[in-house]
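**Protein of interest**
===
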Amino acid sequence: MRAKLEVTSILRTDRYGPDGDPLYVVNNQPITRIKVPEALIRKQQTIRKDTRPKGLYGQSILESPLDPIVNLQESLDRPRIQLSR
């Protein structure tokens, strides 16, 4: 790892040092560089995209336990509950 300073600005002040030279304010920014050996770098793994068709909530239609046709038929077969007021 290496680090060096990059000077961003230099400002002259109204003050003088004991030897009579003007004083300056130097602003800088650190720059770090990291060298990583090739043996430590892993190759990026690609994630295979799921290309199966998706349902309403992002589930695969082919594997969905919430098949709309089956659920519609099941809901029609169930006895209806009537609420009394």
Q: What stands out?
A: The beta strands are 2-16, 22-33.
